[in-house]
């Protein structure tokens, strides 16, 4: 399958044969339960919570923790050489509503992306795909990216970035949409009709979600490291 | 708005019991069937590239006394760069937590066992680069990375279930690398969901406050039948080459006695269309 719509070349030497063989050998001995729980590949778009114009094709590889919570690894493409660029956690509306108010803005809704056809499961027939996406339509996600491939970073530089999802027409960049539609042989527009029956969160989109309609940025701060733990701190003077 | 070093507000999502589990219903049969259906047609190639499972310990860069056991599933991009999905354990477990009375007039036994299934939480992502690549990073970036030499030689970082003879050359290479690790779910603090800003993590070291806590290491060693004591892996790795030089910009806390916290703050979003 084709690689990413973003052009990034990771620096470094090609993997040596010996290294590759060793890793395959050791890999057969080990347990991989958390990865074996990953059962689903979803493609969608994210943009930076402080810059809607910077958009990223995001391939999610997701596992259910339970019926209401999923966790996904995000890669910049579907192939073996894809870069791990971030993570997303997806929760049902019921779970989202239990989050503290200070936390809710870091989460985004999926209703538009699903109903708009831009969130899809590559290779999965529409009839099957829709049975899961009708659930995803009602969920909220928290996405953090670590590797800014859209600006050509050859390595995961800088701070983690909170990402947002598309919430209405006119946001998705046409060049990115065209690239993805062509690569995967899908039509977002056609799929919208098939998904018209779906509905979003029962209580509507929470006003604090989607960065509360504003924007978000991450910053780093130096802190004093505590000298000792609160548990087990010895008393100097009794 | 949210900081990696701030305790979350009290809600069902925060400050739970020692073994947090995310709230929610057990995965339904229909979801499982959909998952199986998807798996049949989707290759999941990037995940299949994660061929190594290693276990170690990570410390929060804003408070080195906050430590956790971490499980890395490692994928190699090339000889110099690796990427890891990090989890809080490597397998779900079922633990008997009590019994529950059966209904009256049931043919089944009066009480049945209730088990708690713990799930494996995705704790974050770690990137590993060779010293050559690391030296090419700007100093401001290097501050966010940590070295591995002590962690590997002390037997804290190890491939799980692999004999030392098989993994020693890989470990020797790893001892010369540097990593950047972002934690997105502060499981050790009891968070039942991934709350707050992502947290920068650092590696354990010989000197306080960077030492990995004895009981954490012993617990891990017992469960995985690893011997990271002075007579075990430490002895096996004593001959391992140390890096000639560890870049002083890495492991920032060691020279500066300062850590890093991440804040998520409100900002103007550049936009070309209405939002949300």
UniProtKB/TrEMBL annotation, chain A:
Highest taxon, organism lineage: Eukaryota
Similarity comment: Belongs to the OBAP family.
Name by which UniProt lists this protein: Oil body-associated protein 1A
From TrEMBL, chain B:
Pfam families: DUF1264 (PF06884)
Annotated spans, Disordered: 1-29
Superkingdom, natural source: Eukaryota
InterPro entries: OBAP-like
Compositional bias per record (Low complexity), positions renumbered to this chain: 8-18
PANTHER family the record matches: OIL BODY-ASSOCIATED PROTEIN 2B, PTHR31360
Family note: Belongs to the OBAP family.
Protein name, entry field: Oil body-associated protein 2B
Species assigned in the record: Miscanthus lutarioriparius
């Amino acid at each position: 399958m084709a690689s990413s719509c973003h052009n990034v070349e990771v620096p470094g030497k090609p993997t040596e044969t010996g290294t590759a063989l060793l890793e395959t050998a050791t890999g057969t001995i080990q347990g991989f339960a958390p990865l074996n729980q990953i059962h689903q590949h979803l493609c969608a778009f994210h943009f930076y919570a402080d810059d809607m114009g910077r958009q990223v094709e995001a391939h999610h590889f997701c596992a259910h923790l339970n019926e209401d919570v999923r966790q996904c690894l995000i890669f910049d493409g579907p192939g073996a050489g894809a870069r791990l660029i971030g993570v997303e956690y997806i929760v049902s509306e019921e779970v989202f509503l239990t989050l503290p108010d200070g936390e809710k803005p870091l989460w985004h809704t999926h209703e538009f992306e699903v109903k708009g056809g831009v969130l899809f499961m590559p290779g999965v027939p529409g009839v099957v795909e829709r049975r899961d996406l009708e659930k995803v339509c009602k969920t909220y996600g928290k996405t953090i990216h670590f590797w800014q491939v859209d600006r050509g970073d050859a390595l995961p530089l800088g701070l983690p970035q909170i990402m947002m999802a598309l919430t209405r027409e006119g946001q998705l960049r046409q060049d990115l949409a065209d690239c993805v539609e062509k690569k995967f042989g899908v039509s977002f527009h056609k799929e919208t009709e098939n998904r018209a029956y779906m509905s979003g969160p029962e209580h509507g989109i929470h006003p604090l979600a989607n960065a509360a309609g504003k924007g978000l940025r991450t910053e780093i701060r130096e802190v004093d490291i505590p000298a000792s733990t609160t548990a087990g701190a010895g008393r100097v003077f009794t | 708005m949210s900081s990696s070093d701030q305790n979350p507000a009290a809600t069902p999502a925060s400050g739970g019991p020692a073994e947090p589990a995310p709230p929610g219903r057990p995965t339904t049969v229909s979801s499982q069937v959909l998952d199986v259906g998807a798996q049949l047609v989707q290759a999941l190639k990037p995940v299949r590239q994660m061929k190594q499972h290693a276990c170690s310990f990570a410390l929060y860069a804003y408070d080195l006394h906050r430590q956790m056991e971490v499980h890395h599933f490692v994928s190699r991009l090339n000889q110099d760069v690796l990427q890891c999905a990090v989890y809080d354990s490597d397998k779900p477990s079922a633990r008997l937590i009590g019994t529950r009375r059966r209904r009256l007039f049931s043919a089944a036994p009066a009480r049945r066992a209730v088990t708690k299934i713990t799930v494996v939480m995705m704790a974050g992502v770690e990137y590993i680069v060779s010293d050559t690549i690391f030296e090419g990073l700007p100093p401001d970036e290097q501050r966010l990375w940590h070295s591995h030499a002590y962690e590997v030689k002390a037997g804290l970082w190890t491939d799980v279930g692999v004999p030392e003879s098989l993994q020693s050359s890989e470990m020797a290479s790893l001892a010369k690398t540097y990593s950047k690790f972002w934690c997105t779910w502060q499981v050790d603090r009891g968070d039942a969901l991934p709350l707050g800003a992502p947290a920068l993590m650092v590696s354990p070291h010989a000197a306080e406050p960077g030492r990995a806590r004895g009981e954490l290491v012993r617990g891990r060693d017992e469960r995985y039948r690893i011997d990271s004591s002075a007579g075990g892996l430490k002895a096996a790795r004593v001959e391992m080459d140390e890096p000639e030089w560890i870049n002083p910009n890495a492991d920032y806390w060691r020279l500066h006695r300062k850590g890093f916290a991440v804040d998520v703050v409100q900002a103007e979003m550049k936009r070309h269309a209405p939002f949300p």
